[in-house]
Design goal:
Layout lengths: L17 H23 L2 H8 L4 H7 L2 H28 L6 H18 L1 H8 L17 H15 L1
Helix pairs in contact: 1-2, 1-4, 1-6, 3-4, 4-6, 4-7, 5-6
């Protein structure tokens, strides 16, 4: 069978590995949640920007809230946990004054927030997230609870 030159060649679908699709969805979600907020970013838009079918969001994350948790909340929690780990390891036996230590902490935290501003903005603009059913049933503030407790413990030492 020959195809006339004026007819479009059928697109060949290449199946991408699940991890690649997941990564594309997470990147797209972070960008759209940061620019449009949780309520303003639709799953359809996220999927289109990622270049995948919308159904894959639900297969990988359950729902929009699950995608938000994976793309923003869990990502931010991991960054904060890593920051606290590094901070404790670096400043455990440090002889800095409380004033200098606090200044160094604030400067370091500010630099971290600037480096990951897309996640911070997404968290700030996500006020509608807590109103929607989250698969884990945990509020956004949970992303900060454990790191804050660790910081309080570290500060008291």
């Amino acid at each position: 069978m020959t195809v006339a030159k004026d007819q479009a060649t059928p697109a060949v679908r290449v199946r991408r590995p699940s991890a690649v699709v997941r990564g594309l969805l997470l990147d797209s979600a972070r960008t759209l949640f940061a620019t449009r907020g949780y309520a303003g970013a639709s799953t359809r838009e996220i999927a289109e920007q990622a270049g995948v079918r919308e159904a894959l969001i639900f297969r990988h994350f359950g729902n929009k809230a699950g995608l938000f948790r994976a793309a923003v909340v869990d990502e931010f929690r991991g960054i904060i946990e890593g920051f606290v780990d590094d901070w404790e390891a670096t400043h455990e036996s440090n002889a800095m004054s409380t004033y200098d230590l606090t200044g160094a902490w604030i400067s370091s935290l500010h630099a971290l927030m600037r480096e990951h501003r897309e996640l911070v903005v997404a968290l700030i603009t996500a006020n509608a997230f807590d109103d929607e059913a989250d698969p884990d049933g945990l509020p956004i503030t949970d992303a900060f609870a454990r790191p804050i407790r660790r910081l309080e413990k570290f500060t008291r030492r």
